[in-house]
Protein backbone atom coordinates (compact mmCIF):
# COMPACT_ATOMS: atom_id res chain seq x y z
CA UNK A 1 0.00 0.00 0.00
CA UNK A 2 1.13 3.61 -0.44
CA UNK A 3 3.63 4.58 2.22
CA UNK A 4 4.64 1.00 3.08
CA UNK A 5 8.32 0.05 3.31
CA UNK A 6 8.13 -2.27 0.30
CA UNK A 7 5.35 -1.24 -2.11
CA UNK A 8 4.01 -4.11 -4.18
CA UNK A 9 4.66 -2.16 -7.39
CA UNK A 10 8.35 -1.69 -6.66
CA UNK A 11 10.27 -3.12 -9.59
CA UNK A 12 7.05 -3.76 -11.55
CA UNK A 13 6.41 -2.48 -15.06
CA UNK A 14 3.21 -0.46 -15.13
CA UNK A 15 1.68 0.58 -18.44
CA UNK A 16 -0.48 3.64 -17.80
CA UNK A 17 -3.07 4.37 -20.46
CA UNK A 18 -4.35 7.96 -20.52
CA UNK A 19 -7.51 8.73 -22.48
CA UNK A 20 -9.24 11.94 -23.52
CA UNK A 21 -10.94 13.49 -20.54
CA UNK A 22 -10.34 16.58 -18.46
CA UNK A 23 -9.32 14.30 -15.57
CA UNK A 24 -6.19 13.41 -17.56
CA UNK A 25 -4.29 15.91 -15.41
CA UNK A 26 -4.71 13.53 -12.45
CA UNK A 27 -2.85 10.88 -14.44
CA UNK A 28 0.22 13.10 -14.04
CA UNK A 29 -0.10 12.78 -10.27
CA UNK A 30 -0.63 9.02 -10.59
CA UNK A 31 2.49 8.73 -12.74
CA UNK A 32 4.51 10.50 -10.07
CA UNK A 33 3.08 8.31 -7.29
CA UNK A 34 3.82 5.12 -9.20
CA UNK A 35 7.36 6.23 -9.94
CA UNK A 36 7.92 7.20 -6.30
CA UNK A 37 6.71 3.74 -5.27
CA UNK A 38 9.45 2.21 -7.40
CA UNK A 39 7.48 1.20 -10.49
CA UNK A 40 8.71 1.57 -14.04
CA UNK A 41 5.95 3.57 -15.70
CA UNK A 42 5.31 3.48 -19.44
CA UNK A 43 2.63 5.95 -20.52
CA UNK A 44 0.49 5.38 -23.62
CA UNK A 45 -1.85 8.21 -24.62
CA UNK A 46 -4.78 8.32 -26.99
CA UNK A 47 -4.93 11.14 -29.53
CA UNK A 48 -7.73 12.80 -27.57
CA UNK A 49 -5.71 12.68 -24.35
CA UNK A 50 -3.03 14.89 -25.90
CA UNK A 51 -5.60 17.69 -26.13
CA UNK A 52 -5.64 17.86 -22.32
CA UNK A 53 -2.06 17.05 -21.28
CA UNK A 54 1.10 17.06 -23.38
CA UNK A 55 3.12 13.87 -23.80
CA UNK A 56 6.29 15.68 -22.71
CA UNK A 57 4.80 16.05 -19.22
CA UNK A 58 4.42 12.30 -18.87
CA UNK A 59 7.86 11.68 -20.33
CA UNK A 60 9.38 13.99 -17.72
CA UNK A 61 7.45 12.39 -14.84
CA UNK A 62 8.08 8.80 -15.90
CA UNK A 63 11.58 9.20 -17.30
CA UNK A 64 10.52 7.29 -20.40
CA UNK A 65 9.23 8.36 -23.83
CA UNK A 66 5.44 8.61 -24.00
CA UNK A 67 3.92 6.53 -26.82
CA UNK A 68 0.92 7.73 -28.83
CA UNK A 69 0.87 5.94 -32.17
CA UNK A 70 1.07 2.39 -33.51
CA UNK A 71 3.67 3.38 -36.07
CA UNK A 72 6.20 5.22 -33.88
CA UNK A 73 8.87 2.53 -34.09
CA UNK A 74 9.25 1.21 -37.65
CA UNK A 75 10.32 -2.40 -37.66
CA UNK A 76 8.81 -3.00 -34.22
CA UNK A 77 5.34 -4.36 -33.50
CA UNK A 78 4.94 -1.74 -30.80
CA UNK A 79 1.60 -2.80 -29.31
CA UNK A 80 2.84 -6.38 -28.87
CA UNK A 81 6.11 -5.23 -27.34
CA UNK A 82 4.39 -2.94 -24.84
CA UNK A 83 1.75 -5.53 -23.94
CA UNK A 84 4.32 -8.23 -23.25
CA UNK A 85 6.52 -5.94 -21.17
CA UNK A 86 3.74 -4.85 -18.79
CA UNK A 87 3.14 -6.46 -15.40
CA UNK A 88 -0.08 -4.50 -14.98
CA UNK A 89 -2.08 -2.12 -17.18
CA UNK A 90 -3.85 0.90 -15.67
CA UNK A 91 -6.21 3.16 -17.63
CA UNK A 92 -6.85 6.49 -15.89
CA UNK A 93 -8.98 8.20 -16.85
CA UNK A 94 -10.98 5.55 -18.70
CA UNK A 95 -13.61 7.32 -20.82
CA UNK A 96 -16.94 5.82 -21.82
CA UNK A 97 -15.63 5.54 -25.37
CA UNK A 98 -12.53 3.54 -24.43
CA UNK A 99 -14.50 1.34 -22.04
CA UNK A 100 -16.89 0.53 -24.89
CA UNK A 101 -13.98 -0.28 -27.21
CA UNK A 102 -12.36 -2.56 -24.66
CA UNK A 103 -15.61 -4.39 -23.98
CA UNK A 104 -16.14 -4.92 -27.72
CA UNK A 105 -12.55 -5.91 -28.49
CA UNK A 106 -11.95 -2.95 -30.78
CA UNK A 107 -8.28 -2.19 -31.42
CA UNK A 108 -8.14 0.97 -33.51
CA UNK A 109 -5.24 2.79 -31.83
CA UNK A 110 -2.12 2.00 -29.83
CA UNK A 111 -3.74 1.81 -26.40
CA UNK A 112 -6.65 -0.45 -27.37
CA UNK A 113 -4.30 -2.65 -29.42
CA UNK A 114 -2.00 -3.03 -26.41
CA UNK A 115 -4.90 -3.97 -24.17
CA UNK A 116 -6.27 -6.54 -26.60
CA UNK A 117 -2.84 -8.21 -26.62
CA UNK A 118 -2.06 -7.89 -22.89
CA UNK A 119 -2.59 -10.84 -20.55
CA UNK A 120 -1.55 -9.10 -17.32
CA UNK A 121 -3.96 -7.68 -14.69
CA UNK A 122 -5.96 -4.59 -15.70
CA UNK A 123 -7.11 -1.69 -13.52
CA UNK A 124 -9.67 0.76 -14.94
CA UNK A 125 -10.50 4.14 -13.39
CA UNK A 126 -13.60 5.49 -15.20
CA UNK A 127 -14.26 9.22 -15.52
CA UNK A 128 -17.19 10.77 -17.40
CA UNK A 129 -20.39 12.73 -16.92
CA UNK A 130 -23.12 11.16 -14.81
CA UNK A 131 -25.46 10.46 -17.70
CA UNK A 132 -22.74 8.58 -19.56
CA UNK A 133 -21.76 6.57 -16.48
CA UNK A 134 -25.36 5.61 -15.72
CA UNK A 135 -26.27 4.78 -19.32
CA UNK A 136 -27.21 1.09 -19.68
CA UNK A 137 -24.58 0.61 -22.41
CA UNK A 138 -21.79 1.83 -20.13
CA UNK A 139 -23.03 -0.24 -17.21
CA UNK A 140 -23.12 -3.33 -19.45
CA UNK A 141 -19.62 -2.62 -20.77
CA UNK A 142 -18.22 -2.20 -17.27
CA UNK A 143 -19.84 -5.48 -16.17
CA UNK A 144 -18.33 -7.22 -19.18
CA UNK A 145 -14.84 -5.99 -18.32
CA UNK A 146 -15.24 -6.92 -14.65
CA UNK A 147 -16.35 -10.39 -15.68
CA UNK A 148 -13.15 -10.69 -17.69
CA UNK A 149 -11.15 -9.87 -14.58
CA UNK A 150 -10.61 -6.10 -14.77
CA UNK A 151 -10.47 -4.21 -11.47
CA UNK A 152 -12.64 -1.08 -11.64
CA UNK A 153 -11.85 1.82 -9.28
CA UNK A 154 -14.51 4.48 -8.87
CA UNK A 155 -15.87 6.68 -10.16
CA UNK A 156 -16.73 9.01 -7.29
CA UNK A 157 -19.34 11.71 -6.86
CA UNK A 158 -18.20 15.31 -7.08
CA UNK A 159 -17.51 18.21 -9.39
CA UNK A 160 -17.49 17.41 -13.10
CA UNK A 161 -16.64 19.36 -16.23
CA UNK A 162 -18.96 22.20 -17.33
CA UNK A 163 -19.75 22.99 -13.69
CA UNK A 164 -21.87 19.88 -13.15
CA UNK A 165 -22.05 17.77 -10.00
CA UNK A 166 -22.68 14.04 -9.80
CA UNK A 167 -21.28 10.54 -10.13
CA UNK A 168 -18.46 10.19 -12.64
CA UNK A 169 -15.50 11.95 -11.08
CA UNK A 170 -12.17 10.12 -11.44
CA UNK A 171 -11.04 8.35 -8.29
CA UNK A 172 -8.20 10.09 -6.50
CA UNK A 173 -4.70 9.05 -7.67
CA UNK A 174 -3.90 7.68 -4.21
CA UNK A 175 -6.94 5.38 -4.42
CA UNK A 176 -5.98 4.21 -7.89
CA UNK A 177 -2.46 3.48 -6.67
CA UNK A 178 -3.89 1.50 -3.75
CA UNK A 179 -5.95 -0.60 -6.19
CA UNK A 180 -2.88 -1.24 -8.35
CA UNK A 181 -0.90 -2.24 -5.26
CA UNK A 182 -3.68 -4.62 -4.24
CA UNK A 183 -3.93 -6.23 -7.68
CA UNK A 184 -0.16 -6.68 -7.93
CA UNK A 185 0.18 -7.95 -4.35
CA UNK A 186 -2.57 -10.52 -4.77
CA UNK A 187 -1.06 -11.78 -7.99
CA UNK A 188 -1.38 -15.55 -7.87
CA UNK A 189 -1.87 -16.07 -4.15
CA UNK A 190 -4.08 -19.10 -4.82
CA UNK A 191 -1.62 -20.71 -7.25
CA UNK A 192 -1.93 -24.50 -7.16
CA UNK A 193 -4.79 -24.51 -4.65
CA UNK A 194 -7.60 -26.92 -5.47
CA UNK A 195 -10.96 -25.21 -5.01
CA UNK A 196 -14.49 -26.40 -5.72
CA UNK A 197 -17.14 -23.75 -6.38
CA UNK A 198 -20.83 -24.35 -6.89
CA UNK A 199 -23.08 -21.94 -8.76
CA UNK A 200 -26.61 -21.49 -10.03
CA UNK A 201 -29.89 -23.13 -9.05
CA UNK A 202 -31.04 -26.71 -9.02
CA UNK A 203 -34.22 -27.71 -10.81
CA UNK A 204 -36.31 -30.47 -9.29
CA UNK A 205 -38.63 -32.00 -11.92
CA UNK A 206 -42.39 -32.13 -11.47
CA UNK A 207 -43.06 -33.71 -14.85
CA UNK A 208 -41.09 -33.86 -18.14
CA UNK A 209 -41.83 -30.13 -18.68
CA UNK A 210 -42.10 -28.39 -15.32
CA UNK A 211 -39.80 -28.12 -12.33
CA UNK A 212 -39.48 -26.58 -8.87
CA UNK A 213 -36.60 -24.08 -8.86
CA UNK A 214 -35.42 -20.66 -7.79
CA UNK A 215 -34.23 -17.38 -9.31
CA UNK A 216 -30.48 -17.97 -9.08
CA UNK A 217 -28.51 -17.25 -12.29
CA UNK A 218 -25.08 -18.44 -11.17
CA UNK A 219 -23.48 -14.98 -11.46
CA UNK A 220 -22.12 -14.95 -7.92
CA UNK A 221 -20.56 -18.40 -8.09
CA UNK A 222 -19.15 -17.61 -11.51
CA UNK A 223 -17.53 -14.45 -10.11
CA UNK A 224 -15.86 -16.49 -7.33
CA UNK A 225 -14.67 -19.16 -9.77
CA UNK A 226 -13.35 -16.53 -12.19
CA UNK A 227 -11.48 -14.69 -9.43
CA UNK A 228 -9.98 -17.85 -7.95
CA UNK A 229 -8.87 -19.07 -11.37
CA UNK A 230 -7.30 -15.68 -12.16
CA UNK A 231 -5.33 -15.98 -8.93
CA UNK A 232 -3.89 -19.34 -9.95
CA UNK A 233 -6.28 -21.84 -8.37
CA UNK A 234 -7.23 -25.16 -9.94
CA UNK A 235 -11.00 -24.60 -9.96
CA UNK A 236 -13.78 -27.12 -10.41
CA UNK A 237 -17.06 -25.31 -11.03
CA UNK A 238 -20.22 -27.34 -10.43
CA UNK A 239 -22.98 -25.51 -12.29
CA UNK A 240 -26.73 -25.84 -12.08
CA UNK A 241 -28.96 -24.90 -15.01
CA UNK A 242 -29.29 -21.21 -15.87
CA UNK A 243 -29.19 -18.52 -18.53
CA UNK A 244 -25.66 -17.21 -17.91
CA UNK A 245 -22.67 -18.98 -19.43
CA UNK A 246 -19.92 -20.01 -16.97
CA UNK A 247 -16.47 -18.41 -17.29
CA UNK A 248 -13.65 -19.86 -19.34
CA UNK A 249 -10.83 -21.51 -17.41
CA UNK A 250 -12.35 -23.56 -14.59
CA UNK A 251 -13.25 -27.20 -15.09
CA UNK A 252 -17.03 -27.03 -15.49
CA UNK A 253 -19.31 -29.86 -14.33
CA UNK A 254 -22.96 -29.35 -15.29
CA UNK A 255 -25.78 -30.71 -13.15
CA UNK A 256 -29.53 -30.18 -12.87
CA UNK A 257 -30.92 -31.53 -9.60
CA UNK A 258 -29.79 -31.28 -5.99
CA UNK A 259 -28.93 -34.99 -5.99
CA UNK A 260 -26.75 -34.52 -9.08
CA UNK A 261 -25.03 -31.56 -7.44
CA UNK A 262 -24.40 -33.57 -4.29
CA UNK A 263 -22.81 -36.38 -6.28
CA UNK A 264 -20.62 -34.02 -8.33
CA UNK A 265 -19.45 -32.05 -5.29
CA UNK A 266 -18.70 -35.18 -3.25
CA UNK A 267 -16.66 -36.54 -6.14
CA UNK A 268 -14.56 -33.36 -6.40
CA UNK A 269 -14.37 -32.30 -2.74
CA UNK A 270 -12.07 -35.01 -1.30
CA UNK A 271 -9.13 -33.60 -3.27
CA UNK A 272 -10.09 -29.96 -2.67
CA UNK A 273 -8.54 -27.59 -0.16
CA UNK A 274 -11.60 -25.34 -0.15
CA UNK A 275 -15.25 -25.61 -1.16
CA UNK A 276 -17.32 -22.49 -1.83
CA UNK A 277 -21.02 -23.34 -1.94
CA UNK A 278 -22.49 -20.36 -3.81
CA UNK A 279 -25.20 -22.43 -5.49
CA UNK A 280 -28.84 -21.97 -4.48
CA UNK A 281 -29.65 -25.64 -3.96
CA UNK A 282 -33.37 -26.39 -3.73
CA UNK A 283 -34.45 -27.39 -0.22
CA UNK A 284 -37.36 -29.53 -1.42
CA UNK A 285 -38.33 -31.65 -4.42
CA UNK A 286 -41.59 -33.26 -5.50
CA UNK A 287 -42.07 -36.67 -3.89
CA UNK A 288 -43.12 -38.10 -7.26
CA UNK A 289 -42.32 -37.08 -10.83
CA UNK A 290 -45.16 -37.50 -13.29
CA UNK A 291 -44.06 -39.64 -16.27
CA UNK A 292 -46.03 -37.46 -18.71
CA UNK A 293 -46.91 -33.79 -18.84
CA UNK A 294 -49.57 -32.81 -16.32
CA UNK A 295 -52.61 -31.41 -18.14
CA UNK A 296 -54.61 -28.38 -17.08
CA UNK A 297 -57.77 -30.41 -17.55
CA UNK A 298 -56.68 -32.72 -14.74
CA UNK A 299 -56.80 -29.88 -12.24
CA UNK A 300 -54.06 -28.74 -9.83
CA UNK A 301 -51.71 -31.60 -8.91
CA UNK A 302 -51.48 -32.84 -5.36
CA UNK A 303 -47.92 -31.63 -4.88
CA UNK A 304 -46.18 -33.37 -1.98
CA UNK A 305 -42.62 -32.22 -1.28
CA UNK A 306 -39.73 -34.00 0.40
CA UNK A 307 -36.33 -32.60 1.47
CA UNK A 308 -33.40 -32.63 -0.94
CA UNK A 309 -29.94 -33.72 0.26
CA UNK A 310 -28.00 -31.15 2.30
CA UNK A 311 -24.93 -30.82 0.08
CA UNK A 312 -22.98 -28.52 2.39
CA UNK A 313 -23.51 -30.77 5.40
CA UNK A 314 -22.41 -33.77 3.35
CA UNK A 315 -19.16 -32.01 2.41
CA UNK A 316 -18.56 -31.12 6.05
CA UNK A 317 -18.85 -34.79 7.00
CA UNK A 318 -16.13 -35.89 4.58
CA UNK A 319 -12.82 -37.08 5.98
CA UNK A 320 -9.92 -34.65 5.82
CA UNK A 321 -9.68 -30.92 6.35
CA UNK A 322 -10.81 -28.23 3.94
CA UNK A 323 -12.06 -24.67 4.15
CA UNK A 324 -15.84 -24.52 3.81
CA UNK A 325 -17.58 -21.35 2.68
CA UNK A 326 -21.37 -21.23 2.63
CA UNK A 327 -23.94 -18.79 1.33
CA UNK A 328 -27.28 -17.83 2.80
CA UNK A 329 -29.96 -15.98 0.85
CA UNK A 330 -32.25 -14.23 3.33
CA UNK A 331 -35.06 -11.69 3.22
CA UNK A 332 -34.81 -10.60 6.88
CA UNK A 333 -32.62 -10.92 9.99
CA UNK A 334 -29.59 -11.53 7.80
CA UNK A 335 -26.93 -11.62 10.48
CA UNK A 336 -28.84 -13.83 12.92
CA UNK A 337 -29.71 -16.32 10.19
CA UNK A 338 -26.14 -16.33 8.93
CA UNK A 339 -24.60 -16.95 12.34
CA UNK A 340 -26.98 -19.83 12.99
CA UNK A 341 -26.00 -21.50 9.70
CA UNK A 342 -22.31 -20.78 10.30
CA UNK A 343 -22.44 -22.74 13.56
CA UNK A 344 -24.78 -25.49 12.39
CA UNK A 345 -22.77 -26.37 9.28
CA UNK A 346 -19.29 -25.96 10.80
CA UNK A 347 -18.23 -23.32 8.28
CA UNK A 348 -15.17 -21.09 8.24
CA UNK A 349 -17.09 -18.34 6.44
CA UNK A 350 -20.61 -17.60 5.35
CA UNK A 351 -21.78 -14.93 2.94
CA UNK A 352 -25.22 -13.69 3.96
CA UNK A 353 -26.96 -12.10 1.01
CA UNK A 354 -30.18 -10.12 1.03
CA UNK A 355 -32.70 -11.22 -1.59
CA UNK A 356 -36.27 -10.30 -2.39
CA UNK A 357 -35.81 -6.68 -3.40
CA UNK A 358 -34.60 -4.95 -6.54
CA UNK A 359 -30.87 -4.33 -6.97
CA UNK A 360 -29.49 -7.17 -4.88
CA UNK A 361 -29.25 -10.93 -4.96
CA UNK A 362 -30.34 -13.29 -7.72
CA UNK A 363 -29.78 -11.95 -11.23
CA UNK A 364 -28.47 -8.60 -9.99
CA UNK A 365 -24.95 -7.29 -10.56
CA UNK A 366 -24.73 -6.17 -6.93
CA UNK A 367 -25.21 -7.86 -3.57
CA UNK A 368 -26.20 -6.39 -0.23
CA UNK A 369 -24.25 -8.83 1.87
CA UNK A 370 -22.05 -9.53 4.88
CA UNK A 371 -19.17 -11.97 5.30
CA UNK A 372 -19.34 -13.68 8.69
CA UNK A 373 -16.37 -15.61 10.05
CA UNK A 374 -16.01 -18.39 12.59
CA UNK A 375 -13.15 -16.37 14.06
CA UNK A 376 -15.14 -13.15 14.42
CA UNK A 377 -13.32 -11.08 11.80
CA UNK A 378 -16.52 -10.21 9.96
CA UNK A 379 -17.18 -7.82 7.11
CA UNK A 380 -20.40 -5.89 7.87
CA UNK A 381 -23.40 -5.72 5.61
CA UNK A 382 -22.90 -3.36 2.69
CA UNK A 383 -23.41 -3.12 -1.04
CA UNK A 384 -20.86 -4.95 -3.23
CA UNK A 385 -20.52 -5.67 -6.89
CA UNK A 386 -20.30 -9.40 -7.39
CA UNK A 387 -16.70 -8.92 -8.50
CA UNK A 388 -15.84 -7.06 -5.29
CA UNK A 389 -17.49 -9.72 -3.16
CA UNK A 390 -15.70 -12.50 -5.06
CA UNK A 391 -12.39 -10.71 -4.53
CA UNK A 392 -13.04 -10.40 -0.79
CA UNK A 393 -13.93 -14.10 -0.54
CA UNK A 394 -10.74 -15.10 -2.36
CA UNK A 395 -8.71 -12.77 -0.11
CA UNK A 396 -10.08 -14.71 2.85
CA UNK A 397 -9.42 -18.07 1.19
CA UNK A 398 -5.82 -17.14 0.47
CA UNK A 399 -5.21 -16.23 4.12
CA UNK A 400 -6.98 -19.29 5.50
CA UNK A 401 -5.16 -21.67 3.18
CA UNK A 402 -1.80 -20.10 4.00
CA UNK A 403 -2.10 -20.99 7.70
Which helices and strands, and how do they pair?
Layout: E1 13-18, H1 24-36, E2 40-45, H2 55-62, H3 78-85, E3 88-94, H4 96-104, H5 110-117, E4 122-126, H6 130-134, H7 136-147, E5 151-152, E6 156-159, E7 165-169, H8 173-186, E8 194-199, E9 204-205, E10 211-212, H9 219-230, E11 234-239, E12 251-254, H10 258-268, E13 274-277, E14 284-286, E15 305-307, H11 311-316, E16 323-330, H12 334-345, E17 349-354, E18 366-373, E19 379-385, H13 386-401
Parallel strand pairs: 1-2, 1-3, 3-4, 4-5, 8-11, 8-13, 11-12, 13-16, 16-17
Antiparallel strand pairs: 6-7, 9-10, 14-15, 17-18, 18-19
Helix pairs in contact: 1-2, 1-8, 3-5, 4-7, 9-13
Please explain how this structure is put together:
The protein has two domains: 13-186, Flavin prenyltransferase-like (Rossmann fold); 194-401, Rossmann fold, CATH 3.40.50. Strands 12-11-8-13-16-17-18-19 form an eight-stranded mixed β-sheet, with helices on both faces. It has a five-stranded parallel β-sheet with strand order 2-1-3-4-5, sandwiched between helices. It has helices at residues 24-36, 55-62, 78-85, 96-104, 110-117, 130-134, 136-147, 173-186, 219-230, 258-268, 311-316, 334-345, 386-401, and strands at 13-18, 40-45, 88-94, 122-126, 151-152, 156-159, 165-169, 194-199, 204-205, 211-212, 234-239, 251-254, 274-277, 284-286, 305-307, 323-330, 349-354, 366-373, 379-385. The protein is built from 13 helices and 19 strands. The relative contact order is 0.09. The longest helix is centred in the last third of the chain and has 16 residues, at 386-401. It is elongated and about 75 Å long. The chain is α/β, with parallel strands linked by helices and 403 residues long. Mean pLDDT is 87; it is low at 1-5. Strand 9 and strand 10 (211-212) form a beta hairpin.
